Amino acid sequence: MTTPPLQQPLRALHRALRDGSVSAAALAESAAQAYRTRGQHDHAYKTWNGDAAQAFAKATDALLKQGGDAGPLMGLPVSIKDIYAVPGLPTYAGSSRRLPAEWERPGPLVGTLLNQLPVVMGKTHTVEFAFGGLGTNAHHGAPRNPWDPVAHRTPGGSSSGAGVSLASGTAGLAFGTDTAGSVRVPASMTGVAGLKTTVGRWSTAQIVPLSTTLDTPGLLARRVDDLAFAFDALDPGLSPGSSRVLATPDLADLTFGVPETFFWDDCSPGIAEAVHEAIKRLEAAGARIVTLELPNTDDAFTLFQQGGVAAAELAAFLHTSLPGAIAALDPNVAARIEAADDMPGWEYVRRRQLLDDLCRAAAERLSQVDAVLTPTVAITPPTLESLEHEGAYPKANMKALRNTVMANFMGLCALTLPVGRDAANMPVGLQVMAGPWQDARLIAIGQAIEAKLGNSLDVLGEVPSPA
Fold this sequence. Notes:
Elements: H1 10-19, H2 24-42, E1 45-48, H3 50-65, E2 77-81, H4 108-114, E3 119-124, H5 160-167, E4 173-178, H6 184-190, E5 193-196, E6 216-221, H7 224-234, E7 255-258, H8 271-284, E8 288-291, H9 297-305, H10 310-321, H11 331-341, H12 345-366, E9 371-375, H13 392-401, H14 405-409, E10 413-421, E11 427-434, H15 439-453, H16 456-460
Parallel strand pairs: 2-3, 2-4, 7-8, 7-9
Antiparallel strand pairs: 1-3, 4-6, 5-6, 5-10, 9-11, 10-11
Helix pairs in contact: 2-3, 5-6, 7-15, 10-11
């Protein structure tokens, strides 16, 4: 059976676009066909840009035929979370109303992307103002997790449409953001790879803020190697023809720390088992596995349960920049904003200081290993029906973000890749965390892991057709 074009590696598509064996128009048409087939069912996009994208793809082909080359991502179909400012496309940030025109002027990251002439297929759904880990949205509905063709399960959030756009075949690369796990949770739940960059490595300018302290842009793709390809294309300061991502190391040269506590507690059936099996395979391939606990995880999770700093920082943004949006907030978001309104200034400062302490301790601890391995998400994607019960949403939301938020609170970079399925037959992710500013080495380590364990197609197979 012929592999659909957008399931092929981005590196292969890059070469094929230049040797003429595939066209940008054909890739855009493949994405559009997937949207016609699954778009209404999967509900990944807030704004579908299909017609304009196909016209742009044809113009890109004409430029390629003339020998033009705007960069590695030229002609590749991408989706962008509806929290990024993108020219010509409205920004809602998951809210009920369109944001002012200033949120349609691109920042540095989108500018770097658009300068390479990718084909933007549309803007994907997000939890309102990116404040949630499950992917629900009271205004626009939740995208469907495509791995359950019958029940409507959450896709993970807050980049809720990003993973779905990849799994359903409407994009080859997806842009999300990560404040407590909002790239890694949807990547894990939808069976793709996801990268959370170190805070400050990539600019967050013209990305609607949730937390000025913790927000990071991120990427989702079908493979870690696709993440590496895109990272090289986007990372600032990269000279032409050079590579930011390091050479893939041999597993026998790597030492992985594996915590024995916290990350494994109360996982849904099959999740811990799948991750343990993946770690055993890495050890059998020569990787050194040592026990290593991240510092003060219980204190960090208590801080997260109290709202961390994100609730206060989002409240500040809304009160100063979008006060009209507050009355119409999703109830799940509004409850946390209201709680933040009562926080005294000294408590906010205390929380910021605690985060600084966590970052220092974690950086020192991770200097002992190449990376730390854990389950990405501890729970199977819940059904929307199960979240309707009183208290069910906050409990599931906290559990979904429990493992991922540690990288955010500790200033780490992190990625996830699929390693199997749980007892509910839903994807399971392996989280790989490394020290701050080790993004390039982290991706190289992820490539080594993927080379042994396989990519999403190897591990999970084809996404089922809608029922």
